[in-house]
Amino acid sequence: MDLSYWELKNWFTDVDYAIVGSGIVGLHAALRLRERFPESKILVLEKGILPQGASTKNAGFACFGSLSEIIDDLKSHSEEEVIHLIQKRWKGLQLLRKRLGDDTIDFKPYGGYELFLKDDESCYSECVGKLPFINEILRPLFKADVFAKEVDRFGFGGIQEYLVFNPFEAQIDTGNMMQALLKESVSKNILILNQQIVTSYFDKGNGVEVALGDFSFSTKKILFATNGFANELTNGAVKPARAQVLITEPIKNLDIKGTFHLDRGYYYFRNIGDRILLGGGRNLDFETENTTEFGQTEIVQKKLEQLLKEVILPNQDFQIAHRWSGIMGIGNSKNPIVSQLSDNVYCGVRLGGMGVAIGSLIGTELAELV
Fold first, then answer.
1. Are 13 and 144 in a shared domain?
2. pLDDT tens digit string along 184-238?
3. Are 249 and 288 found together in one domain?
4. What is the pTM of this model?
5. What range does the domain containing 137 cover?
6. Tag placement on the chain: N or C end, fewer CB within 10 Å?
7. Which stretches of the chain are assigned E, i.e. beta strand?
């Protein structure tokens, strides 16, 4: 980089906190650091022109886990762990709403639904059977039943008679959310530089030397909020998971409102006005989808279109308007990693596909570590 004296002075000199990643976690960490240290110099480094992982690419679900996902989580985590995780997701959503306001993020409390395909009798039976137990363990947190059976009123095709409804779920506008976070960060004198790739860093004990290609600068502390790109940073504890998404052109008289889950959360869809956004399908080819490369594959896109045609919009014509993908951070555990890696290096990663819900809290917790 060929930088001037002015650029070096204003952006790269006397940096107190460098944050890598300008997504939900990174910006919440920056804002919390600003609250704690009003006079500090905070620099956010982002490798994309916009937040690169999933913060601006997700489906905008304000959710904390479908019934089948919670049941699956109980098979690999203790009951206490699962309740704690749901509590964090719920708390994170409240934090996000409080910081930005429901109008800003276009919060729509339509509720959420889980569908079960006709040929997925085992998952359907298990969910219906365990529904009362899940309600019981979540009642102390929500002070009411979370899940209830409802007859399908949307005209879906090839599904079981009942949907599972969750009144605590909602939609948000992901673009509005991230734009508002970026605006607030800039207004709080947080410096944000895009298209900056941290190629290496070295904790010297009294600070961190950070390399951006052939240029390096010093910061007192560095915080990584790189989620799906944190595999190397965490010695493999975080694995990338690509999520492929599509959205339709407007559909006349669309009568679907809400957030919807299918096949243990591997597929998800919602309305955006009179369009349908649908994503998922990484379970069709885990190996290929565990990647940090953006893009689409034929096998996943065909399946998404099949679900639109046969299940979601069985009696309606539709056209695909746009396709994209995002990169999530997952691992063997659903618990996020918020930890100090060395004297002056910290990370808040592995959001497990729940970044909208938990990202604000993880960013805040990351800043509290310093």
1. no
2. 999 999 999 999 999 999 999 999 999 999 999 999 999 999 999 999 999 999 9
3. yes
4. 0.96
5. 110-170+238-330
6. N
7. 15-20, 42-46, 61-62, 112-115, 148-151, 162-166, 170-171, 191-194, 200-203, 208-212, 215-224, 239-248, 259-262, 267-272, 275-280, 320-330, 337-342, 345-349
